[in-house]
Design a protein that fits this description.
This protein is mainly alpha-helical. It is built from five helices and two strands; from the N terminus they run βαααααβ. Strands 1-2 form a two-stranded antiparallel ribbon. It is globular.
Length: 78
């Protein structure tokens, strides 16, 4: 069983005009770590996940999920 963690880090970062390096500096990690996280090549520790959510001032489940996030525009119309 593969444990994949999906995230919205890139979307949140770009939405706020923050570079990978700026986010990395704020979190105290290497900027490449942010890239690995965004691409799903690395799953964060619980501590790092909570710090990322805190940085963006959103609940952790807004940033991370065990299921893929729906794409923008893929809403069901009733």
């Amino acid at each position: 069983m593969t444990e994949t963690i999906y995230n919205r880090i890139a979307m949140l970062r770009v939405e706020r005009g923050i570079t990978r390096r700026q986010l990395a500096d704020a979190l105290g990690v290497h900027y490449q770590t942010v890239g690995y996280l965004e691409r799903g090549e690395y799953s964060p520790s619980l501590y790092l996940a909570l710090r990322i959510a805190e940085y963006f001032e959103v609940p952790v489940e807004v940033v991370f999920s065990t299921k893929p996030f729906p794409r923008i525009g893929d809403r069901e119309v009733s």
